[in-house]
Amino acid sequence: MNNRGVGMKVLVSGGGTGGHIYPALALIRTIKKENPHAEFLYVGTENGLEANIVGKENIAFKSIVITGFKRSLSLENFKTIYRFLKGVKDCKKIVKEFQPDVVIGTGGYVCGPVLFAAAKLHVPTIIHEQNSVPGLTNKFLSKYVDKIAICFEQVKEFFPEEKVVYTGNPRATEVVQVGNKGSLTQFELQDGIPTALIVGGSRGARAINETVLQSLPTLAEKPYQILYVTGEVHYEKVLKELQSIGVSSNVKIVPFIHNMQEILPVVDVVVGRAGATSIAEINALGLPSILIPSPYVTNNHQEKNARVLVDHGASLLIKETELRSKLLIESLDTVLLDEQKREKMKIASKQLGMPNASQVLFDLMGDLIKK
């Protein structure tokens, strides 16, 4: 952005899940590098993940009370309408006090009143849609905001064409920019051997955990390695199960990986859910993947995210209803035992990546401020 936006004030909102919060934080960190004098205010909810995560980043934080709409007719929806209207009033006050140059929302129902209030006060606004199918909040906001940043070309059809800008996911920028790659030796595995990272998200996924446990005896005989992340909630239960199964030297089981950005570049395939942020990281690095979409998300958007990668030859898809030990092992063999197949998937994945997403968004913000 060069000198555009010197001393700029940025109001950011996004919450509910890490998939909405981490892209926001990645963008904030990029803006800080480009513009050390920028000021930030993050608006979220007290009971969302953002209250804890953003607080640790030393970013000013304000909360509002808001809930999402139920998809069925419910008395709770009338309460939500009241909370939304009050939230808009509260957000107008926050916007007037902070006087941001631009407001960006990265998803979650908390963005509704924040971006709506900013738009009504004629502050430049951007929503960032990470998924291939938009959520209700972003669909609603698309009528009022100035620009809509997207990560999947397929989502364009849901929004006013003149507002859409393909930016990619800011989280991808951070993964690519990691200076120091990690080593698998910290997990008592060997560097240089084909390795699968199996992870069900920060909290883990029971179906994935159960299938991996059933697969361990067969995986012990494979010439590749497994780094298996159970999620902290499931770790103790998995350890108890392992007492009767045992673990071979080519499998390492951990509850959580804190330096995931350093580990992703040194594995050969990622097995896990199909959240938008995870996919952005995978594609930015050009990693093959075996995706097991969560069936418990709105509009089945994870499966739709995954099918974009499958259609481009970057991923294999396993529906959770079809997840069995035999299929998981066959999929791992397909990628890890066939170097030619793996290389083709790497190229396809890389072509879908957008490693400079934060810079593109940063420049888009600058253009809006300039106007």
Describe the structure in your own words.
It is built from 14 helices and 13 strands. It is α/β, with parallel strands linked by helices. The chain has 2 domains: 9-169 and 355-370, Glycogen Phosphorylase B (Rossmann fold); 177-352, Rossmann fold. The strands form 2 sheets. The chain has a 7-stranded parallel β-sheet with strand order 3-2-1-4-5-6-7, with helices on both faces. Strands 10-9-8-11-12-13 form a 6-stranded parallel β-sheet, with helices on both faces. Helix 1 (18-34) crosses helix 14 and helix 7 (206-219) packs parallel to helix 8 (235-245). The longest helix has 24 residues, at 75-98. It is globular and about 65 Å long. Mean pLDDT is 90; it is low at 1-5.
Mean pLDDT: 90
Please indicate the count of domains.
2
Report the span from N to C terminus: 14 Å
What percent of the residues sit in helical stretches (DSSP H or I)? 40-55%
* CATH level 1 name of the largest domain: Alpha Beta
Structural class determined from secondary elements:
alpha/beta
Name the shape in a single word.
globular
Short description:
With 371 residues, the protein is of the alpha/beta class. It contains 14 helices and 13 strands.
Layout of helices and strands, plus pairs?
Blueprint: E1 9-13, H1 18-34, E2 39-44, H2 49-55, E3 61-63, H3 75-98, E4 102-105, H4 111-120, E5 125-129, H5 136-141, E6 147-150, E7 164-166, H6 170-177, E8 195-199, H7 206-219, E9 225-229, H8 235-245, E10 251-254, H9 260-263, E11 269-272, H10 276-285, E12 289-291, H11 301-311, E13 315-317, H12 325-336, H13 339-352, H14 357-370
Parallel strand pairs: 1-2, 1-4, 2-3, 4-5, 5-6, 6-7, 8-9, 8-11, 9-10, 11-12, 12-13
Helix pairs in contact: 1-6, 1-14, 3-4, 6-10, 6-14, 7-8, 7-12, 10-13
